[in-house]
Amino acid sequence: MAGPTPFSPDLLTVVDESNRAADRFDSARRTAQQHANGRTCFNCTDSKNCTQYSWALGELRRHPGGRDVLRELKIPVSVEAPNEEGQQR
Question: Does the model's pTM come out above 0.70?
Answer without folding.
Answer: no
